[in-house]
Design brief:
It is found in: Membrane. With 391 residues, the protein is mainly alpha-helical. The protein is built from 16 helices and no strands. α6 crosses α16 and α13 packs across α14.
Length: 391
């Protein structure tokens, strides 16, 4: 019987954990499926397009041929003129003329493009060329960006809970250390007083008669009989309520053991979890300096790892690239040699964007508070002073 009850409790605990994690897993799984479907779509549309050699491309090749022939005839005479002409000509060139679409729009390349679309980073290194691809990119971003923000909000609740609990635990530990330093060398009279009160009080859960209550309650002895009986009656009612409460809980447990009722209760709790998205993020109140420190450490960790496969980057360049990515600026001035490896950083990007979003929100709240103080200060100073007229 004991093992059966333990198994039932274990199953119930597993179900509770599953339904508690279900909303978070649902959002992340939806985003992953959305990214994979987009990668398949764009790799098929943009990767299989035909490259048409336009008149501009032929004109470019003709001018390049003429410049190279003139350079071979006059090697050093017109070097400055050659530099200006070749610079002007290369500015007219388009990357699409020299790259095979199938080499860019592979599955992983398309997946990297989809991640840059719904995260609003948009490096600009990979972009759709066909008209169909451009229309589908707009439609893909229209649904992908809200889904990404929903995932960010959901992850923000988890991150805000972790940060707030960690910060509160640190403050409690700090206060305990300060209190122990202040109380060292002094006797705690308040603790002795509380102990004496605890010994003199009566536990309501124990079965006591009226005489024991009168003997053990010094506050009741000194009162008139009318008030004394009223207090004894209230104590007896409290004692009876305390004894009858476990029986009610047992009846509720029997009532909730019905599978249909428990399933309905579980579904209502899951729906309530969906409604609570973003609530913890609004309650977060930690110092902005702490968030800036977390961002610096977070980006530094990635900047130390990224040059391992991106050999052209050093720590400073990798730090700059991660900051531009997490803030969704995405200039595109730094190109990745292995974007396939960077896809393994997808979770890192999502969490990092969430940390930056929380920092921006805290900074926004601080700015709003500062504006309120400035406006109230200016309003108080501009208030006309009351003139006191002589009587």
């Amino acid at each position: 019987m004991a093992s059966t009850s333990q198994r039932l409790r274990g199953k119930r605990a597993c179900k509770k954990i599953f339904w508690a994690v279900f909303p978070h897993a649902c959002f992340i799984l939806s985003l992953v499926i959305y990214a994979f479907l987009g990668a398949l779509m764009f790799s098929h549309i943009e990767g299989n397009r035909k490259v048409n050699l336009s008149e501009e491309y032929r004109d470019f090749l003709q001018q390049l041929w003429n410049i190279s022939r003139n350079l071979s005839d006059n090697m050093t005479e017109n070097e400055e003129t050659f530099k200006e002409e070749i610079h002007t000509l290369l500015n007219r060139a388009e990357r699409d003329w020299f790259v095979n679409p199938k080499d860019i729009w592979t599955f992983f390349g398309s997946l990297f493009f989809c991640c840059t679309v719904f995260t609003t980073v948009g490096y600009g290194n990979t972009y759709p060329v066909t008209r169909t691809g451009k229309y589908l990119c707009m439609l893909y971003a229209l649904f992908g960006i809200p889904l990404m923000f929903l995932v960010l909000t959901d992850m923000g609740d988890i991150l805000a809970t972790v940060l707030s609990k960690s910060y509160n635990q640190f403050r409690k530990l700090q206060s305990k250390i300060l209190a122990s330093k202040l109380c060292s060398g002094f006797t705690c009279k308040k603790g002795d007083e509380l102990k004496s009160r605890a010994q003199s009080t009566i536990a309501i859960s124990e079965r006591l008669n009226i005489m024991e209550v009168l003997k053990n309650q010094p506050g009741v002895k000194g009162k008139p009989i009318k008030y004394r009986n009223a207090e004894i009656f209230e104590m007896l009612i409290a004692r009876e309520n305390e004894h009858t409460r476990p029986a009610r809980n047992k009846s509720i447990e029997r009532w909730s053991s019905c599978p249909e009722l428990t399933r309905g209760k579980t579904m209502s709790q899951v729906i309530e979890n969906f409604d609570k998205i973003g609530k913890q993020l609004e309650k977060l109140d930690v110092p902005i300096v702490l968030m800036v420190l977390v961002i610096f450490v977070y980006i530094s960790c990635a900047a130390a790892i990224l040059p391992k496969w991106e050999t052209r980057m050093d720590f400073q360049e990798a730090f700059y690239f991660c900051f531009i990515t997490l803030t969704t600026i995405g200039f595109g001035d730094t190109q990745l040699e292995h974007p396939k490896f960077f896809l393994f950083f997808s979770l890192y990007i999502i969490i990092g964007m969430e940390i930056v979003f929380i920092a921006f929100k805290l900074g926004q709240d601080r700015l709003i508070g500062l504006y309120k103080k400035v406006i109230s200060f200016c309003g108080e100073n501009k208030m006309p002073s009351k003139k006191v007229y002589p009587k």
